[in-house]
Amino acid sequence: MIKRLIPNLITLSNLTCGVIAIYCAVQGWLVIAALFVLLGAFFDFFDGMTARLLKVQSPLGKELDSLSDVVTFGVAPGLIALTMLGDVVPEKLWWLPCIALLIPAFSSYRLAKFNIDERQTSSFIGLPTPANALIWLSLGTMHKLAASGAVNNWMWSFGGWHAYQKMSGMIENPWFLVALIVLLCIALVCELPLFSLKFHNLKWSDNRVRYIFLILAVAMIVPLGVVAISFVMILYIFLSICYPPKNQNNKHDD
Length: 254
Hints:
The protein contains ten helices and two strands. By secondary structure, it is mainly α. It has a single domain, classed as CDP-alcohol phosphotransferase transmembrane (TM) domain (Four Helix Bundle (Hemerythrin (Met), subunit A)). It has a two-stranded antiparallel sheet. The radius of gyration is 18 Å and the shape is globular.
């Protein structure tokens, strides 16, 4: 009985992180909100794996996972984007930040679609909600660090100052943010096949693309820091297009 509770407790930890991230985003603490979204992603990565290892997978766990993901990877990044837009839009366009609410709406639709789509076994169809959330926590962190003036020393320490300079102008442009929101919302529900990062074993032959992605992602994140996350997501989509994933028989979690 206790063994059955372990994966659900991990999933609820993801949900709790999402709730805290929402509170932080509402307060304007975007860096802290991003950290809790990252922590939620950590728990989300291990709940399904734990359930499979303990052989306690259940319909309840599947539904609980999706509900938690709506909070952590839908509502939280939506409020991060809303806060970013609220900081940069002119007063006469006070309504524009509300476009960020498309993120939780499309994320919810994506997760519901995932639960009934039998094609999504060892791969995804459409951008996974955690990947979309990572993009927004990266942009939100850069936005907040720039506004606080802390970005100079922080970015120099990771060697990503030049990359930040090229992106800072874009993320302070409200129309760029609106276009990005719309584009990523479409990506959430489109028919683009993308590989999953969930490992069912550690064999190179079965996980070649996953290993290549992780190696390249680390190589980008170490020198560039948080700036790299958005580029890592582009790499993720690029590798999925170059190496289309093949479905297997084990349904994974979004």
